[in-house]
């Protein structure tokens, strides 16, 4: 009954992912087996008297050995599970950060052209003004407006209008990229573009 009870409990542990359960089972069965052999030897019913005499000592030594191996196995398994859990948490944190970065990027960039939008300009303006004050530079705002742009949408369709807008902003970006410290700020609803070039802001 003792052995069957231990077997049932440890089988349940193993089914729930406790891998050292087999070692615990063997460790706990050593003692009753050693006791049975010792008792049989006491009544001269065991064929190996010397082994029977030390059977309980041997069983106890095996019991300690198997328990130690089980504890080592369980410790290693627990550490492995902790590392896996930490890895999952790190992946979750990285995914959350990527999601936040994507949301921030969408908020600060035009969805059509991918260039920084007016909100991005508004966030950068204090820095631009501060740098101009430090280096004693002047700031100018220049508006670039695509005249009669609505006629393109009305006659050729919004898709062609969007394609034209991409071409214009791409060329503006190429011009700005050839200049030092330059950035193109994308169009707004009125199809206007802004560029920050060499410490002077053009809009």
Could you walk me through the main structural features you see in this protein, from its secondary elements to its overall organization?
This protein has seven helices and four strands. By secondary structure, it is of the alpha+beta class. Strands 1, 2, 3 and 4 form a four-stranded antiparallel β-sheet that branches. Strand 3 and strand 4 (200-202) form a beta hairpin. Helix 1 (2-15) packs antiparallel against helix 2, helix 2 (21-42) packs antiparallel against helix 4 (55-108) and helix 6 (149-156) crosses helix 7. The longest helix is centred in the middle third of the chain and has 54 residues, at 55-108.
Profile the largest sheet. Answer: 4 strands, antiparallel
Q: With helices defined by DSSP (H or I, 4 residues minimum), what is the helix count?
A: 7
- Radius of gyration over alpha carbons? 39 Å
Alpha-beta content class: alpha+beta
What ranges have pLDDT less than 50 throughout 5 or more consecutive residues?
A: 196-203
**Number of β-strand runs:** 4
Specify the overall morphology.
rod-shaped
Mean of all residue-level pLDDT scores = 76
Distance between the termini: 89 Å
As a percent range, the share of strand residues is 5-15%
Measured as a percent range, the helix fraction is 55-70%
Order of helices and strands: HHHHHEHHEEE
């Amino acid at each position: 009954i003792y052995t069957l009870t231990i077997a049932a409990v440890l089988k349940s542990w193993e089914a729930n992912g406790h891998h050292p359960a087999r070692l615990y089972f063997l460790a706990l069965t050593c003692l009753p087996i050693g006791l049975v052999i010792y008792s049989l030897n006491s009544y001269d019913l065991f064929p190996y008297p010397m082994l029977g005499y030390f059977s309980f000592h041997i069983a106890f030594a095996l019991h300690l050995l198997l328990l130690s191996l089980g504890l080592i196995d369980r410790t290693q398994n627990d550490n492995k599970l902790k590392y896996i859990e930490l890895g999952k948490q790190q992946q979750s944190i990285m995914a959350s950060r990527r999601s936040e970065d994507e949301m921030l990027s969408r908020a600060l960039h035009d969805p059509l052209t991918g260039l920084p939008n007016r909100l991005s300009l508004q966030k950068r303006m204090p820095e631009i003004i501060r740098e101009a004050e430090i280096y004693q530079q002047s700031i100018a705002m220049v508006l670039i407006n695509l005249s009669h742009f609505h006629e393109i949408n009305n006659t050729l369709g919004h898709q062609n209008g969007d394609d034209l807008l991409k071409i214009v902003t791409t060329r503006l970006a190429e011009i700005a990229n050839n200049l030092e410290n330059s950035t193109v700020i994308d169009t707004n609803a009125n199809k206007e573009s802004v560029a920050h070039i060499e410490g002077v802001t053009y809009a």
